[in-house]
Amino acid sequence: MARTKDAGSSPKPAKEPGRMKQMWQVFQMTRRYDSSAQWLMLLGFLLPVVVGLGLALWLSGGNGFTIALWIIAGVLAGLLIALVILGRRAERAAYSQIDGQPGAVGAVLKSGLRGSWTGNEMPVAVNGKTQDAVYRAVGRGGVVLISEGPRSRTDRMLTDEKRKVERVLPNVPVSTISVGHEEGSVELHRLAATLRKTKRSLTKPEVLAVTNRLNSLQAPLPIPKGIDPMRVRPQRGRMR
């Protein structure tokens, strides 16, 4: 019997969706959670086109080539603005899906920070019963402690962590942020922007030094005492 060409061949990996398909998927997800996103994108696209058309009729002097250039410039500007609106609305829609869940602040600190700000998705303090947590971010604005959970339960945690940091870094500004929907709290999708607005007081080398100092003082996870797994030898069977 003749062998088939597919015999013994491994299945081909599925192709990743193209850029246009990915953008369409992002648009569909954003529109599902934010119905106003599509209208804002449309407005952001049409406004530069109208402005470009008006400038073409006003400044071209009847030159068809100049009119075409102004219209093309308006279309390109409109596409750029629409994509910027889509990106920001998509980010907000993504955060709305995890808002209120344990670890949401850590997800923002891991993927949503820009510039000199750095954060860890793992909390520096956590309440095992209520799952309330305190996270830490370091940047040009100093050290910022961020709580996740109701303020009635996390204010004490923030105070304790702030006291620890100030004891180790007495000359570094330490501020606190409570994430939530209560009065005085910051909503999850505004956390990254709030950090960027913090008044700068450290240089980039100082930010690195503060980060290394805090990481070196971070207590490791407790390891149960007992047999060292690196020194365990396999037991040999007894001779009978």
From TrEMBL:
Keywords recorded for this protein, A-Z: Membrane, Transmembrane, Transmembrane helix
Stretches for region Disordered: 221-240
Pfam family, one: DUF4191
InterPro entries, per database record: DUF4191 (IPR025445)
Residue intervals passing through the bilayer: 39-59, 65-86
Name of the featured protein: DUF4191 domain-containing protein
Native source organism of the sequence: Agromyces tropicus
